[in-house]
Amino acid sequence: MKKLDVRLLRMIKNSKGQFISVVVIVVVALSIFISFSTTTVNINNAIDFYYEETKFSHIHVQLMKIPEGAIQDIKNIEGVTEVQGRVVFDVPLKTENKDEKIRVRIISMPHGGGSVNRLYSDKGALGEAQGYNVILLQQFAQARSIKQGDIIEPYINGRTQTMKVSDIAASSEFVYLMENEQALLPAPEKFGIVYVDEELAQSLYGYSGSYNELLIRIENEEKIDNIVDILEKKLEKYGVQKIVKREDQLSNKVLTEKLRGIEQMSKIIPVMFLAVAGIIISITLSRIVSNDRISIGVLKALGYGNMNVLFHYLKYSLAIGFTGSVLGIILGLFLAKLLTELFILFFNIPLIKIEIQYIYMLYSMILTSIFCIISGFLGARHVLGIMPADSMHPEAPKAGKHIWLEGIGFIWRRLSFSWKMVIRNILRAKRRFILLVLGLALAYAINTVPLYMLGSMTSMFYMQYGEYQKMDYVIELSRPMNENVIKDMHHLMDNAKLEPRLEYPFELKNAWRKKAVAVIGVPKDTEFYEFRDENNNRVVLPQKGIFLTEALAKLLNVKKGDYVTVNNFIPGKDDVRLEVKGIVKQYMGVNAYMNIEHMRETLTEKNMITGVSAASKDDLKEKLEDAKNISSVRSIRDIMDSFTEYLDTMVVAINLYTLFGGILGFALIYNSTIISIAERRMELASLRVMGFDKKDIFWMLAKENFTMAVIAIILGIPLGMRMINGMGESFNSEIITFPTIIEPKIFIIAAISTMIFVLIAQLATLKKIINLNFIDALKSRIS
Questions:
Q1: How confident is the model at residue 719 (pLDDT cuts 50, 70, 90)?
Q2: Across the chain, how many H-helices and E-strands are there?
Q3: Torsion of CA 462, 467, 473, 479, to 10 degrees
Q4: Among 53, 82, 750, 765, which residue's Cβ finds the most Cβ atoms within 10 Å?
Q5: What is the Cα–Cα distance from 146 to 105, expressed in whole angstroms?
Q6: Residue 593 has pLDDT above 90, yes or no
Q7: Segment 295-328, tens digit of pLDDT
């Protein structure tokens, strides 16, 4: 081993605390990068393979009714490879617990499993859905502990049907099992999928020889928009309700959005951590070079060139990078396995294979090397200016001068001696102080983001179902009916307040931009909906025209006063152009709203409704369980209960993020304090001679760190706001729009957590202060 390498090992040993703290930051950064990147790639690969293996549809069409004979006409469309019809309807499921309300979706399946959206079983051969033998979706069966051979009793058209579970399978259509976009969260114990024989489904719901949904596979996904346009024209006479492309399919969209969020985090968080690690490396090496001034001169006098000596110190930063890379990659691969398994808990992806992505290991080492080389050079560049002759005597002290604060007499005179020393020391090393403040401000800003995410999720939910929508239940009818049905409902619900609701899917279009959404018609003087514009001002539903939610207006690139075209798929109804009367807030899903009377006149039929909004203290789910023509009863209370359970997992994620920010803060404060003690040994020894005890010196150094932390928090507030806005924008989607509600408590809690980690770091240096030999420090010896 070369002599300089032996000296490098001694350097690492003498600064092991600082070395380890920076290595930990690099390990955290790379473990996040490796685990998130590997998980994203593995899940995407698994999904692509799973979709192809099960022949997942590219286009999903919902319509009123289409005869079996018309399917051949769809198959003849150029680019279409497979078409499969099916009957789909939602019904209650009876259980032993009468208070429990379970919904299942009955889906017909042709003999042999069909050619599109085939079911998957890890056991190999799949049982048939024949007669009253059915196949159950895996997530629902596991959540309710239903096994093969068990009996289930769905309540269909006023009668309880007894069905036997012949098999349990997974479906690529329901990787993320949600009843609809309004459900917000999966609840597999309360909603499931039941696959039944095609002939049975058609007979139960009067669809003999016909279907109400089509599944379509195409040859070239680049031509999907053209095929959708052709489908709209060909299927118009069959009462098209919605044409959903794979990218908009609910399960696939949720999965894609979550993977996109993880991918973004894998790029942002590691860079921030490595930036902080670079700051610490630069400051640490700068201090080591300063202390090694005479040794550097001796090395140069012995014949070592500038590049040799510079590379010697760069090896210190590269040693940090190499150690952190190796440990980070190992930990990252371990976490990738855990993260993938966590994904499997939320997403039912049976065909998943965890592969090591070597390219990301290479990326991590290159990225770390770049940061370490740059920060190492910035810290050790002063080596180039040290001359052997000049280095033989101690470096001349900096010229003393008054600081600007001394000019403000009424402040300076009121400061204690220790505070004056704190301020002078801060201003004596301004560059280092600025770097440390910026690093600590970044750590503080990182702590604000998870707090915002928790607060915004909570606010989003309670504003959506407390302010904007005030009903207790949404009752959906099995088919469009006359508004007079509300009178019959009043007999079943004596104390309920009811309001008609007309929800129907249409395609909204502005130039080349278009989006299929549910247009909701409610009374002009609705008591269950409150509309607020972009400035949070309350607005009233107009007599004519249409309201668009913010996310929909952004998708269509329209503003108030513009016109949109509503493509109407109802047979005999024409497309219409409507004026956008307002852009309103809605945090979950994308919709358009109209006065129900105007919607009936222009888009649907007179007196038509598809559902009812209700406010009642009674359990309407139980009261309406046996009612005919009711498809579902959605309880806002049930949605709130599911959200409360989800918050528990959010708290775990927030604690993890806070730990990340704390690690950064700890490393910064610990390293800066260690460096300060090493550089000021003579000064601290002099203070001991003057009567200061070790506790006084500890608190004097603590004052410096807490001063730095306070300034960092002040600077970190605008930085945190920018990170919050960026995070909100990056996670916004058609399903969820995060409200920009930045509350003071976010920054207060983040400040408290930052101060706690600063205190922990300060306490970690207490042993260094206690063990400092002040007598040796007064002997002007070169260590």
A1: confident
A2: 24, 22
A3: -110
A4: 750
A5: 16
A6: yes
A7: 888 888 878 888 888 888 888 889 998 999 999 9
More confident residue, 648 or 310: 310
Which residue pairs, CB below 8 angstroms and at least 24 apart, start in 639-644?
A: 639/182, 639/183, 639/184, 639/465, 640/461, 640/465, 642/183, 642/184, 642/185, 642/187, 643/184, 643/185, 643/461
Residue 757 near residue 763, CB atoms below 8 Å: no
What does pLDDT average to over the chain? 82
The owner of tokens 């970190």 is 716
Q: Enumerate the β-bridge partners of residue 228.
A: none
Question: Using CA atoms, how far apart are residues 327 and 325, in angstroms rounded to an integer?
Answer: 6
Lowest mean pLDDT among 191-200, 259-268, 728-737: 728-737
* pLDDT tens readout for residues 684-716: 777 777 777 777 778 888 888 888 889 989 998
Strand (E) or helix (H) holding 164: strand 163-169
Token digits for 690? 């003057």
Sequential DSSP letters for 74-107: HHTSTTEEEEEEE-EEEEEEE-S-TT--EEEEEE
- Tokens read off for 33: 């990068």
Rounded CA gap, 633 and 379, in Å? Answer: 66
Query: Phi, psi (5° rounding) for residue 408?
Result: -95, 85
The full DSSP string for 620-663 is HHHHTTT-TTEEEEEEHHHHHHHHHHHHHHHHHHHHHHHHHHHH
Structure tokens at 363: 């990326």
- The helix, strand and coil proportions of the chain, stated in percent and rounded to the nearest 5, come to 55, 20, 25
How many Cα atoms occupy the beta-carbon half-sphere of 646 within 13 Å? 16
Which of 482, 524, 529, 521 minimizes the C-alpha distance to 503?
Answer: 521
Token pair belonging to 290: 């300063």
676 vs 436: CA distance, rounded Å: 12
Query: What percent of the chain has a predicted confidence (pLDDT) above 70?
Result: 91
Tokens of 519: 């247009």
Residue 310: count other Cβ atoms within 10 Å of its Cβ. Answer: 20
| Cα distance between residue 219 and residue 78, in whole Å | 9
Q: Which of 128, 100, 101, 125 is nearest to 114 (CA)?
A: 128
Which runs of consecutive H residues, i.e. helices, occur in 292-357? 293-301, 306-346
**What's CA 2's distance to the chain center, in Å?**
50
Q: What pLDDT sits at residue 781? A: 44
Residues 329 and 34 sit within 8 Å (Cβ to Cβ): yes
Q: How far apart are CA 100 and CA 621, in angstroms?
A: 9
User: Which stretch of 142-151, 451-460, 470-479, 770-779 has the lowest confidence by average pLDDT?
Assistant: 770-779
What single DSSP character describes residue 529?
B
- Any bridge partners for residue 632, and if so which? 476
pTM over 0.85? The answer is no
Per DSSP, 266 falls in state H
**What's the confidence (pLDDT) of residue 8?**
81
For residue 76, give both structure tokens: 């003849």
Note the pLDDT of residue 400.
60
Q: Which of 396, 306, 322 is nearest to 364 (CA)?
A: 322
